[in-house]
Amino acid sequence: MMIAMVGGTAATLPLMASAQEDSASVTAAELQQRIAELQAQVDRLAAQQTAPVQDPEPERKTFGGTQIQIGGYVKLDSNFSSYSDGSSATAGIGEDFLVPSTIPIGGDSGDTRYHAQAKSSRLFIKSHSEYGSGAINTHLEIDAMAGGQGDERISNSYAQRLRHAYVDWQMDGSRSLLAGQTWSTFFNVGALPEGLDFVGPVGTLFERQPQVRYSHKLGSGQLQFAAENPATTLYNGAENPYDDNSTPDFVVRYNNSLGDLSYSAASMSRELAYEADSERESRRGYAVSLSGKYQLGRDDLRFMYSYGNALGRYLGLNSYRAGIIEADGEINLIDQHGGFVALRHFWNEQLRSNLVLSATAADNPDTVSDMTAAAYRSLHLNLLYSPVPKMTLGGEYIFASKEVENVSGQLTDDEGDLQRLQFSMKYVF
Prior knowledge:
Elements: H1 2-20, H2 28-49, E1 60-63, E2 66-83, H3 93-96, E3 113-117, E4 122-131, E5 134-143, E6 161-170, E7 175-183, E8 208-218, E9 221-228, E10 234-235, E11 249-258, E12 261-276, E13 279-296, E14 299-308, E15 323-325, E16 331-333, E17 336-346, E18 351-362, E19 373-385, E20 391-404, E21 415-428
């Protein structure tokens, strides 16, 4: 209706101008310019009318000056999975969602398997309290994904687990201090592609952990500093992970935008350490990551690339360990890299698709075992339908592969793959 009214105004503008102004004072060129300006407004309004519907934030209720917000979603995932080298993932969690390291290698292919679960359904509670020129926000969130308790025999009951639990003190319009458990500052969650799989591409960073993070506005961007909970994963180790670190993982990240491009650049320095027989070994490694989203009208292109000798558990759900304990006890860190590119396309107001290509690789030394992971690849292609706001139904095809080192050359098969067709229904409340 608003577009029709603006369009009508544009059509009657010459008549209004002739009635109110002398014809000598308003030229034809000026009238054409005004009409062009109004037409531009019409085009902008039309674009807003056809923009994709976003899930609205749950309503906030105020109690004693504190705003409380309760929300979450309910989701069912149904998977049909087929493996080239096995009947199922090498760990049960790999049936719930794509965990690259659980792709089997060296076995016989099995029949297609069906698996359904609702573990990713989640519940959160947030609070917002204003104090002077600042505010304090809290966030507590749980789901049942990756829970070790429960089975499928009778009730499919699963233990709840902690996802997020933090307090964020907004000191003023330019500074904030966060303390608690949430996404690692090294991980730009805003660049993660839209998909049905719980995590997505093999080349994404993915980490939540306790931390202290300070954010400060810098020009048009934002600079963040964080000290995060450490953990060390090493090949040839007796523990996985080791909890022998003497310093936190340090992260520096810069966020900004340039036109239709929003981006983040992050660097990390962390200690890799272990203790055995009263001896302690320690190495310091690094990693960098660049990620972002480029808006293409209604569509968007998302990307991420990470590199370093301390990526380890941060990359692809701990697809690789950060280093290896050599025969002399020294830690040898391993260069690794990975990333993805994802295109999202809207077919109309309710229908959209995502195509995601991803790969990772590790430059392992010759001292690793034959079955040590060397590379991963994945492809995701989905079709998502939102008939009403806050509801999504869809299907997604996933292809993922794993390659191992086969240093000795004695393995007759050093690569396996997974093909999965996933159907999901999700409602956000």
